[in-house]
UniProtKB/TrEMBL annotation:
The protein, known as: Type III pantothenate kinase
Subunit structure: Homodimer.
Gene: coaX
Predominant location: cytoplasm
Keywords from the named record: ATP-binding, Coenzyme A biosynthesis, Cytoplasm, Kinase, Metal-binding, Nucleotide-binding, Potassium, Transferase
Enzyme class: transferase
Cellular localisation: Cytoplasm
MF-aspect GO terms: pantothenate kinase activity
Cofactor binding summary note: A monovalent cation. Ammonium or potassium.
Organism whose genome encodes this protein: Flavobacterium lacisediminis
Annotated pathway: Cofactor biosynthesis; coenzyme A biosynthesis; CoA from (R)-pantothenate: step 1/5
Length: 244
């Protein structure tokens, strides 16, 4: 039984796996980490291993608590990955992007894969059918776009994501919603279109906090999985065990 931990910029996601079957899922704020891990460990005292990926900040007290309870693997740039990393600056590549690329490589073998992570930032990562990681792109996520309009102007309000938007905004609020949401949708569709032109048999995986919202509005055929990083950690752990 394996516990996978994804420490993001704002929240922590946790899943319990037994082989490839997910048994449980948790999500909580970073400042509530210790209390939540205490409860999880009470309910799953028979864990065999923990695998952790972090792009956010996890307090040393919490890390020590986890490592003192169960064997823990923290993914870093020296970890084993099932692809050849051709990024020009591999030491700067986010661990979350590497884990997602690993999951796509293992789950969709012998294919060209584009992984789109729609979270705080929107990241695009491409692994070709020869299992070579080539790179991708990083752009502002939906929340950052709303905040930027408010922070860098004197009169535009700070809005939250809305289900109600149209291509033509007939008020300041609806114009902001149109610009932010349609801008993200057009951006993603544009990237997918360009990658599809250059790569046959392209498998597209959409994940991240805004994945479900966006999946319903994208025209392209995609695999939407908001917790793909947790599944990727499980696959990466199984891969490591097999190749040790």
């Amino acid at each position: 039984m394996l516990l996978t931990i994804d420490v993001g910029n704002s929240r922590i996601k946790v899943a319990v796996f037994e082989h490839n079957k997910q048994l449980d899922f948790f999500i909580f704020e970073t400042n509530e980490a210790l209390k939540n891990f205490e409860n999880i460990f009470k309910n799953y005292s028979n864990l065999q291993k923990i695998i952790l990926s972090s792009v956010g900040k996890l307090e040393k007290e919490v890390v020590d608590f986890i490592q003192n309870r169960f064997p823990t693997e923290i993914i870093d740039h020296k970890s084993k990955f099932p692809f050849t990393n051709l990024y020009a600056t591999p030491e700067t590549l986010g661990i979350d992007r590497m884990v997602l690329a690993a999951g796509a490589t293992l789950m969709y073998p012998n294919q060209n894969r584009l992984i789109i992570d729609a979270g705080t930032c929107i990241t695009y990562d491409f692994v070709n059918d020869e299992n070579q990681y080539l790179g991708g792109a990083i752009s502002p996520g939906i929340k950052i776009r709303y905040k930027s309009l408010n922070n860098y102007t004197s009169k535009l309000p700070l809005l939250d994501l809305s289900e109600d938007f149209d291509i033509i905004g007939n008020s300041t609020k609806s114009a902001i919603h149109s610009g932010v949401i349609n801008g993200v949708i057009f951006e993603i569709e544009g990237f997918i279109s360009q990658y599809s032109l250059k790569n046959q048999d392209l498998t597209i995986i959409l994940t991240g906090g805004d994945a479900e919202f966006l999946a319903k509005r994208l025209k392209s055929t995609i695999f939407a999985n908001s917790n793909f990083l947790l599944e990727s950690l499980n696959l990466l752990s199984l891969y490591t065990q097999k190749n040790d």
